[in-house]
């Protein structure tokens, strides 16, 4: 059995592997970059070694250095997690050549499946259905465009060596092909070091179904049933569930057997995922095989009563699979939601900042229930803690929220409740978006396909609405009680008191708050009147008595008129974050005693939406442009973001060139509206 392993990754997967290894009595070694010196995965491992600077290519992608650290620390094996070097055949072979165990498939299997083009050719030889497309070596833009025209639009451009939605573009028209191809290749070379792409027919309303497979060195190979990963944005998964809704047993068996045959064809060992794209009529086509553990593996664990990381460690130690195919029954239903630091309302732009407050729903991490006993209802896998920073160097995932239910209805209810309890302050997140998605008619009724988010944009991205009186009351009362408590700390100084007491009259003050609905120029005028028997509040045309029933830290229970209301209020500077009724309200307090805030950047200067690198400048100084024209393309977290003209106008000056690093909010060019 293994006694010590090195984890060549970071974040939640490193924490996940460390937790399972500890339970099995295996010691762990973490590697970390300078940006991750204080990270959670460093803290939870038995040892930790600095591997290099923040940039992944100078740290987590330094394969030879990682092998040297493993040997120096006495580790017997290397677990690659997912991402980084997890599907790098050369690294797997170098680990083996160094006399260590690579906890994953052999390099030959990775090579066979690592290239989408080669994998499709292999599957074609095995009579596995393939989506019409071109998977060859000719990468001339004109030739690829000819292939796209032949296949018929829309087509999907996909990085051959890619994954995670990077290096993918849907092209609707022939005239858009060249620009999309150039963007796809730039993203592919940045993410994978290989700009080769394939072209496929883009299916209308397809589902994304994947099969979890596992093989050992004794010739055993099983499938642990399917996951539905259809709900995606930018070709990246948002929600995953197991089993797939409305999956007939015969189709489940057919897809499972096809996945096992694919794994056997390449001599596979360890955990892997065979991905299929399925039509609404039930027909399915091979897409690719991920030769590693997947981000969404917990939902498979929850319905099969297995720990897939434990299986990885046992197989790597030369043991057979713990279960046979006949023992892998489906129990209940599980759904995973990826909690990201991103702003869905701004095209899912990643959000950079510090987790000033993070409160997760009550959960049991990494403890899986055996059948006969239900698994934990809620599970949270996370690689960050309150106080940690989400940097621009790595994926902005904060946590994976996984729920289990006896059936899909119960799992949906538990996920909705858990999202209501997940509170984050300090940066933008997708929690509110996920809640709308989970509670929406399309997902709740299992009307699933990969275009669900785009198709239901109006309900998933609603216009901002006014904060209700209850949220304003909680913020106002939190502000008022905070002032009172500060005065109470100095009872001998009467002028420090902030109780609002007046000898012969009531005292009314007006508090100014603003949010996305009101905008910075407007705001809510919240009247708070101090009376001998409590408070009164008036706002939004309403006036109600207000009383504090109970306060424990940030948790408040208030009585607003005849209604009792509970919530928590977290203050971050002059911003009050109000969590109540399953919603999160962000209210900026306009403190009349504070200095005026910084002026906005000069009008007409388009700014960077986040820190990143300029990869293309399409604007030319002195040239007129139309609304929506692409002006600058930035890359951040290996994803491209296009800055477009907000209206017809004139580009007066270009302030950055290709290759320049720019800060969040930096003016990129001077623009004059027509």
From TrEMBL:
Domain Biotin carboxylation: 1-458
Superkingdom of this protein's organism: Bacteria
Gene3D superfamilies linked: 2.40.50.100, 3.30.700.40, 3.40.50.20, ATP-grasp fold, A domain (3.30.1490.20), ATP-grasp fold, B domain (3.30.470.20)
Keywords from the named record: ATP-binding, Biotin, Ligase, Nucleotide-binding, Transit peptide
Cofactor needs: biotin
SMART domains: Biotin_carb_C
CDD domains per record: biotinyl_domain
InterPro entries linked to this entry: ATP-grasp, ATP_grasp_subdomain_1, BC-like_N, Biotin_BS, Biotin_carboxylase_complex, Biotin_carboxylation_dom, Biotin_COase_C, Biotin_lipoyl
Domain Lipoyl-binding, first and last residues per copy: 596-672
One MF term in the entry's GO annotations: ligase activity
Domain ATP-grasp positions: 120-317
Record-given protein name: Acetyl/propionyl/methylcrotonyl-CoA carboxylase subunit alpha
Organism for this UniProt entry: Telluria aromaticivorans
Lineage: Bacteria, Pseudomonadati, Pseudomonadota, Betaproteobacteria, Burkholderiales
